[in-house]
Write a structure and sequence with these properties.
heterodimer; A: mainly alpha; Rna Polymerase Sigma Factor, Chain: A; Arc Repressor Mutant, subunit A; 2 domains; B: mainly alpha
Chain lengths: 181, 80
């Protein structure tokens, strides 16, 4: 559809959540804003392919997600290096518990496989339905559900049970509750 | 089997002990994770739309939007 003033406003209204999605995915504010800018340019250039009445945020999130993934492949090594040094700085910080807890969460989120991280953010933070999240990621609804579940159990292992990354949710909980059983 | 221990730092540890007694450990953890995830996300959402994006959207003349500016009418394919 043509770019009407209404559509322009709707696109702008999606920018805050696009930024939140981009920052959650990339963990880097500057890079996230570049990603949002590229998403907007791409969206405007392809506005004719947007179906009036369909889900505009989902369409924009799809573009951003695909841009991030193609970008991510190129930068993989760079990101892993950054993650390593980031983890080191965490250990030397004073224990201001609220801030530290946030940093820990951020750090744990970055450790999730990308498929799981994006599924968890779309459903758990952006508020998309499983169906919309599946459309954005180009996979089946059941796949999204399973990725979200695995993301949650891995986060709980990383954040609340030390050294339990290799265990599934049931084993983790059982181990914590029942000790070595 | 690896030895596992609870990360009992801060209030999370207290909450977890409570939850453990009640057998609701997993639900408690998942609720915390959901809360932290949304807190991180909403923190960015609340920042609103940075000026650079407002400018970007307003300035862009979009292909397919159709030339509806006054000077577009000056072009004439008639020749001469």
């Amino acid at each position: 559809m043509p770019l009407t003033d209404q559509l322009r406003d709707d696109i702008l209204a999606s920018v805050p959540s696009l930024r939140a999605f981009a920052i959650s995915l990339s963990g880097n504010g500057d890079r996230a804003d570049d990603l949002v800018q590229e998403t907007l340019l791409r969206a405007l250039a392809n506005i004719d392919s947007f179906q009036p009445g369909s889900n505009l945020p989902a369409w924009l999130f799809t573009i951003l997600r695909n841009l991030f993934r193609s970008d991510y492949r190129k930068r993989r090594r760079e990101v892993e290096d950054a993650e390593g040094s980031y983890a080191k700085t965490l250990k030397t910080q004073p224990a201001q518990s609220a801030h530290l807890e946030f940093e820990e969460f951020r750090n744990a989120l970055d450790k999730l496989p990308q498929d799981q991280r994006e599924a968890l953010i779309l459903v758990g933070a952006s508020g998309f339905s499983y169906e919309d999240a599946a459309a954005i990621c180009g996979c089946a609804v059941g796949t999204i559900k399973s990725r979200v579940n695995r993301a949650r159990s891995k986060l709980s292992a990383l954040l609340y049970v030390e050294g339990a990354e290799d265990f599934g949710p049931d084993e983790t909980v059982r181990a914590v509750i029942g000790g070595s059983g | 089997m690896k030895i596992q221990k609870l990360n009992t730092r801060g209030s999370a540890g207290q909450d977890m002990k409570e939850a453990k007694k009640q057998g609701g450990l997993n639900a408690e953890i998942q609720s915390r994770i959901g809360h932290q995830l949304r807190a991180m996300y909403d923190d960015v959402v609340r920042q609103g739309v940075p000026d650079r994006f407002v400018d970007l959207i307003r300035r862009l003349d979009v292909p397919g939007g159709g030339p509806h500016l006054g000077d577009a009418g000056e072009k004439n394919d008639g020749g001469e």
